[in-house]
Amino acid sequence: MTPTQLFRTRIAGIGSYLPEKTLTNKDLEKIVDTSDEWITERTGIRSRHVAADDQTTSDLAYVAATKALEMADVSAKDLDLIIFATVSPDQMMPSTACVLQEKLKANNCMAFDLTAACSGFIYSLAIADQFIKTGAYKNILLVGAEILTRFVNYQDRQTCILFGDGAGAVVVRRANDNEDSMIVSHHLHAEGAYGNLLSLPSSGAAMPPSHENIENNKHKVEMQGRELFKQAVRTMAGACVEAIESNKLHTDDIDWLIPHQANIRIIESVAKHAKFPMEKVIVEIENLGNTSAATIPIALDRSIRNGKIKRGQNILLAAFGGGLTSGSIYFKY
Ligand code: ACO
Known about the structure:
- The protein is built from nine helices and 13 strands.
- By secondary structure, the chain is of the alpha/beta class.
- The protein folds into two domains: about 10-175, Thiolase/Chalcone synthase (Peroxisomal Thiolase, Chain A, domain 1, 3-Layer(aba) Sandwich); about 180-330, Peroxisomal Thiolase, Chain A, domain 1 (3-Layer(aba) Sandwich), CATH 3.40.47.10.
- It has a five-stranded mixed β-sheet, sandwiched between helices. A four-stranded mixed β-sheet has the order 8-13-12-11, sandwiched between helices.
- Helix 7 (about 225-245) packs parallel to helix 8.
- The two termini are about 15 Å apart.
- The mean pLDDT is about 95.
- The structure holds acetyl coenzyme *A (ACO).
- The site of acetyl coenzyme *A has 24 residues, from helix 2 and helix 7.
- Acetyl coenzyme *A binds near residues 38, 157, 228 and 290.
């Protein structure tokens, strides 16, 4: 341990939630000029979940968080911090973290939203690890939750086929002496020069929502898909290699790689470039689509609950997202 690393961080509980309603590729065929075959072949996605009209991002997060707290056996009132990673918050102010804090009655903590798009969850985990390592906090709730389907233009066949809604939550706490769980490393990056590849233009002070902006769909996600694809492979494969080299590992030392779930072809290219066999790569995209900040905690939750990921195993998380943001977390579960 380094001199500043007084304590180790343990993933103590995890949960996820997917809204009931689904939108299949066949459904999309009725909305835009596309086909089930094209979407499945180019993205690996067949269906995605869509929040009900009366559900908010904090509602989705609440269910996931409740499951994570239950698994961790941590009471909401014992939380020291809530970090809510999202690019589809309930609203800009108050933060969705504060909305969730109130829903959970987690009255003794600090809470904030984190905007790093699809890398939001790994950014949050790295921040939480710092608070635990230094001894400042003991129990932290991390959430990655999105209702991106409300920000997608259903006339744009390039983007509307990709995104789904969902939430994942993780409770991390200070590891006890007899537990060998720990976050081993985090390497996080940002490249603002590529910000134009994925944006939500009319969502802030630079271009406030107006009749004109809404008529021009400026309140919906804009994406340069082909270029983003290249950057996704470059950044996520680079993040895997960086984690492996800096920890002096071999891919054999890693039990599971969980990459951000944007597109099966991106995931396969990352695995190939980083020399990971696909048998070691967790893929949860077929029926979920891209849930942005939620993809990694949802995939982690499903893999822990279905017994794939076990205590003591070494897990590598790799993400990229709008910003661009990217990076990795390497941890012993
Ligand atoms: N159905 C049918 N045809 C389509 C569709 C569609 N839904 N979308 C595009 N096409 C067409 C295009 O118009 C184009 O036609 P043309 O050759 O006549 O011009 C053709 O298919 C090929 O288009 P490409 O853009 O080259 O298709 P590509 O194979 O790159 O797939 C895709 C597009 C799926 C968007 C891909 O580029 C991709 O996945 N990019 C990354 C997107 C992404 O991951 N975004 C989010 C990441 S960050 C985050 O998660 C927040």
